[in-house]
Design brief:
2-enoyl-CoA Hydratase, Chain A, domain 1; eight-stranded mixed beta sheet; 14 helices; 8 strands
Amino acid sequence: MHYYLDFEKPVAELENKIEELRRLADGKDMNISSEIKKLSKKAQDLRADIFSKITPWQKTLIARHPERPYTEDYIRLLMEDFVELHGDRRFADDPSIVCGFAKFQDRPVAVIGHQKGRSTKERIERNFGQPHPEGYRKALRIMKLAERFSMPVFTFVDTPGAYPGIGAEERGQAEAIAHNIYEMFELRTPIISVVIGEGGSGGALALAVGDRILMLEHAVYSVISPEGCAAILWKKNETSVGQAEYEKASAALKMTPEDLKRFGIIDEIVQEPLGGAHRDKEATARALGDRLRHHLDELKDLDTDELILARYNKFRIIGSMEEKS
């Protein structure tokens, strides 16, 4: 059984009816294939209609969908011989960031990404994908190893933001994020970053200073969550604002891939199956793998100094300002 978002409920009713018909016909002499085919076509058309006009807030909900593929899913589907490395060599290991080395289409690569967790127990262990400073320091350790052995770096971004707890602040959360950003600008190997779900604030940017930045079709990337933005704009607690405010904040933040591509912040939008990446994880991985290969082929033969300069200029020109008299 799939988990359905509120705006998908009309499709849920049809798909549940289809499953009920299949159960009724199981092992019985009943020919209801034509009815199932008719209902399936109706559900497909309805889903296409709904997803043709989703709002930025609804896209945010899809980016957070509990069945959406996470970093470990893409490692399993795209990589071979993955070896995970742990610890920052200063304090501890942070399970909210997965790091290691693998083979991507017979090429050795470093893989780094946020991991939110599936079950309640795993989500608590992984802190709901909100890294501590040691997570970012572990990620940087892997990046520097990749640089030493001339391996490209893939990063998968999916976090509501860096953890804002007292312990994280005491151990230098802001410094860890800033240091990652600084070092990624100087890293002498190609970096390809993919926003696969939620890209929240500096917690996302600390893994997203890339030569190429891709976003899945139903991912979001912003300086703050719609809930946090709404609480600030309308001077309310996050628990007292509602969907109307979230819709306004999401639209104002311009956090969708379409907006970010138009602003020149990302390089490419990777299309997802109808209904989102969780509806067909394998198809999503194949589409992403194709684009990763394409961009890696473009970057692998660039002169290192040229690569670093292009990365610097890429971020340096983001944003523009007009003066009006």
